[in-house]
Specification:
Blueprint: E1 2-4, E2 13-18, E3 22-30, E4 35-38, E5 47-49, E6 54-60
Antiparallel strand pairs: 1-6, 2-3, 2-6, 3-4, 4-5
Length: 71
């Protein structure tokens, strides 16, 4: 579940649009010279982007799973 907004605080999980082409859900960190997006799965690499490459679409505020996701 996503709350629409165009900004994020460090450490928040966001929906981000990358280069107007690809949407992703990652943890957001604003650095001095770039934006860092971190996946929840530590096996994947952190990603760095120029400020102009990332558009925040919203903050993740919850997860809803269907019946097949309940175990």
């Amino acid at each position: 579940i996503c709350e629409p907004r165009q900004y994020a605080q460090n450490g928040e999980i966001v929906v981000a649009l990358i280069r107007s082409e690809e949407a992703t859900v990652k943890r957001f960190y604003l650095r001095k010279n770039f934006i860092e997006l971190r996946p929840a799965n530590a096996r994947y690499k952190r990603m760095r982007y120029d400020f102009s490459d990332v558009l925040i679409q919203g903050k993740v505020i919850g997860i809803q799973r269907g019946p097949e996701g309940i175990k």
